[in-house]
Each structure stands twice: as structure tokens, then as C-alpha cells.
Glutamine--fructose-6-phosphate aminotransferase [isomerizing]
Amino acid sequence: MCGVVGYVGENNSVDILMDGLYSLEYRGYDSAGISVIENDSIITFKSEGKIDNLQNIINKNKKIESNIGIGHTRWATHGAPSDINAHPHSTARLSLVHNGIIENYKDIKDKLVKKGYKFISETDTEVAANLIDSLYDGNPLIAIRKAIEIIEGSYAFAIIFKDKLDKVYAVRKGAPLIVALGKDGKNENFIASDISAVLKYTNKYIIMDEENIAELKKNRVAIYDKDLKEIKAKVSEANWTLEQAEKSGYEHFMIKEIHEQPKAILDTIEPRIVHGIPDFKRDNILDENFWTYFDRVYIVGCGTAMHAAMIGKRLIEDNCRIPVECEIASEFRYKNPILTDKTLAIFVSQSGETADTLAALNLVKERGCKSLAIVNVNGSSIARASDYVIYTYAGPEISVASTKAYSVQVAIMYLITFKISLARKLKNEKEIKILIRNMLNAIDSINKLLDMSEEIKKLCVDYKEVGSIFFMGRDLDYYQVMEGALKMKEISYIHCEAYAGGELKHGVISLITEGTSVVALAIQEKILNKMISNIKEVVSRGAKVLLFAKEGMNIDKDAYDKIIYLPNIEDMFMPIASIIALQLLAYHTAVVRGCDVDKPRNLAKSVTVE
Ligand code: M6R
């Protein structure tokens, strides 16, 4: 949830750490701080709130001459957002930043208090700083090793020691952390929660294995295993570009990422379409029996990933006739799911670090089931823990509200469905080729939807002051309205409820009164008349309906207050396009309401705590 950075090199560490923190701000923005070494002292700056507050404090100070330091942007767990609770947390000998949760912090704290340690913050992180201090006898590796044997929970730590003026240390478990290497042999090295924080400087990085300790000097990185033996770590090269991680002229990352969707989807699916049919050999799924061995599927995820999972369930069940359970990861992990050796468990995650999804995956692994992850971040924990991984190629998604990650996940659901249909001989190659062509046409039409941005923006003025919106849809549109409502809630702070069109009259219709805002999707032709009847049920009770329909549909004028016609695409592929309209609706509404679109309150991009 929090963002961690570290730097050692020949340039000004303050500037580089601040750059990194701005890139990681999407991970949390309750407070921020840095500790840097100048001469032989550790200097710390921290501030409650967004990184701009920290920058203002730094600007007011005399210029710091430092080439080494650590930084942090916080999503508060233990202790309210405040200057005191902001990281780094320091002792007389070290300074430390932390992403994660130390579950046994209370026990450790009690023992440290008995030893005379004093605590000034409410955080679990200060406990880690004092614990390492208490174990420190001049060798950071030994102190860190001993500390992580005691600590239970998740952590990505970056640490500097006052008597090790040229080194930064890092270790992680259950939280992401990479070590990035200076470009072209440049004398500098970095630590970051993810590569986007340092893309400006390098694209070469090492994914830290859990509990290994990294020791960074400006001209050398050493990685130590659990026995403190130095090991050779694999260096990866990020194919994400700096431009992808920048706003590039857009007002917000969210609108940039909405516009990136056609490319992101094509980047994701084209390499997996070989001779017109789906092919997952590049994902190392070489055995065709993989697609036929199972008789039950679970698809697990959280939030937006869960909504992509729901589309997957519907597609696989409709087309492949295999029962598919869709489960919220935080529920699944504490259930006793029916898992047999004929179950395939699919885990969907943009970040690949979501704690609940990872725990659900571990449960499935313990039960001996095959797991397949659909993940956007290369080398992330979920990707590494699952048997198979299909990477989506959306590029970095910075906006907290997920848009392009959803679309690529949905696109993969189509390909998986087609692959299973083909492998199980439910459809022949010719039929699959036609479906894929239709899917590509649907992707093409996203551009038309993006061109409707201004038209949709004009409608959002209606939502400037509203307190709640009901979303309704049926069939595939139902999953879309769930995702549309989530987008609207998280960035515009309007209370939204998403309902299946036929369900409202079973209770919720009592909330519809004169002027209630309703957003309805009536796109699925086979259910159109039923959906229109459901809409009329709310119109006749005074609802103001914004209706999204499909070009060519003949809709009664008394079924809506305002209408937008979306491009005419085959029903099955409509989700690829229609979600764009709902994303734009949420985005423009949030802007009109003056909300901080990319950094909505209380949220963080990747939820690495339970
Ligand atoms: O990284 P993940 O895909 O695992 O994240 C799952 C959810 O936390 C995420 O989709 C969240 O719901 C987004 N903020 C939605 O826009």
C-alpha cells in the first residue's frame, strides 16, 4: 500500500527520492517523508498529506548535499495520518521505511519497552526500527536477518545506518520491492516498490526474493540469502517506458489510461492470436490438455479484477458449459472451497500484489490445484506464485481507479473462452476465427467511444450535486454497471448501487423517487424489451434515466431522460466497448465535482494488506 524508495549514487538523493515518491504517490498519500545522509548525519523530513507538502518543507530548508537516502509515501494502517506517524522512523543509529503490516508488533513493542526503548508514534513500523536497532552490533545484515526472524506479517523495508554512510539495505516479504541498477554502468543504484518510480533513470532491475537482503552501494549491489551468503540475482529489463508512466499532456492519469485502452488490449491479445486462433504457448502453456483437464473453474480477484472475473465466468459458462465460481478473494481465502484435482483456479490482479488474492492463491496451492494468474505487473508476487501466468500488457496503470487493466483482463477472458471451446471441440477453428475477427472489430470501435468523451462530459453536469445514482443493466450489462458504479463511487464519492434490471422491484425500487438519478445500460439485444420494461418501472416512479443503448435500437422516448447511442457491436463483445462509456462518465463526473481523480480519498492503488 505504501511506496518505498531508496537511492545511493553520485547525484542529489533528495531530488531522486522525491521524483520516485511522486511516481509512487498512487500507492498512498496520507503522508510522506525522506531520510538522507549528509556528511555523517541522517536528516529526516516528513509531512502529513500529499507529497507536495513534503516538497514545500524541503524547499524551505537549505539545500541538502546528499547522495544517499530512503523515502516513503504512506497509506495509513497503524495510526492516523500525521507527521509523527509518517515514515521514515528513526533511532539514534538508523532510519527505516516500511510497506506492509507487522502483525506481532505489540509483543515486540512490549519487549522493547522493557529494554528501555521509547516510542513516539502509533505505528508498527517504529517497532521494526527499534527492533533492528536493538539487534545491531555493527553488522546490518545480521541485525536485519535476526529481526525478520522475529517479525510476523508483511514488509518491504529500506534502511540506512548512521555508521554505514555509503550503503542502503532492503528486504521484503509479502510486499513488493525491486532493486534497480544504474544504467550503462552508472555509479548509482535504487530501491523502489515498483519500477515506475525509477524508469526515468533505468529499466534494469532485480526482483527481490522474499527474505533475501539487498546491500546497495553506488557501484555495487549484493544480494544475500537467508544464510547471509551472497547470491547471483537475475537482472530483468522493464519494457515499460517513462512515457507510459507520465501524464503526457493529459490532465489526469485516469483519462490518459482510458485513452490507452485500444492499444493496451491489442498489445495483450495480438501476440496470443496465432493464425487467427488463440495460442498461449508464449505463456508456457504448452500442453493442450491444460485446457481440457478441469471440470470446474474458480475465478478469484478483488474490486475491478473481480468484475473482469464475472465477465469471464459468464463467457466460459455460456460457451464452454463448465461451471465457474466467481469469488471475492477476501471471502474465498476463509472458506472451505470445493477444490479437486480437476479444478482450475484463475487469479486476476493488475498489481499482482493484492494480499487477499495472493492468500487465496496460496490456499489453492496448498490444496494441490492448478493455478493460472492473469496479472499486469511482471514478476509480481501473484505471478511468481502461480503455476501459470498470462501477463496482460497494459503498461503501468497509475490512476488508482482501474480502467485499462480491466479491459485487458476482459480481453484475456475472451481468449481463454475461445481456447477452451476449441480444445474441447465445442467450436471449430473456422468458428473461432470468426469470433476473433468480431472481437477485433469491437476493439476497433473503442476509438469511436473515446470520441464521444465530450458528449458524455456534457451529461455529467447533472451529477455535480447528486447524492446517489442507481446503475442498472441485465445480462452482460449487469457486470458492466457494477464496474461503472464502482468507478463512479471511488472517484466522485457519489453513493452508487448497481442492480440487475429485474431485481430492483424486489426491494430497492422503494428508494426511487422523483428525480432519483439512474444510469441504465440497455445494450444486450436479446434482453432489450425486458430491460426497457425495468427502466420504465423506475421512470414511472420519477427517476431521471441516462440510458446507454446501441445504435440502431428503437427505444421509446418515454424510457429515458437522456440517451447515448453506443456503436453497434455484437452483444457478446459489447462489454469491450460499453465500459469505456461508463469510465468516461465516472471520470468527467469526478472532474466536475472537483475531486482528486487519480488519488481518491482513503484509497491506494495496490492493497497489500489484508
Ligand atoms: O491490483 P489488483 O487488480 O489486484 O487490485 C484489485 C482492486 O484493489 C482494484 O481493482 C480496485 O478495486 C481498483 N481501485 C478499482 O478501480
The chain has a mean pLDDT of 94. The domain at 450-592 is CATH 3.40.50.10490 (Rossmann fold).
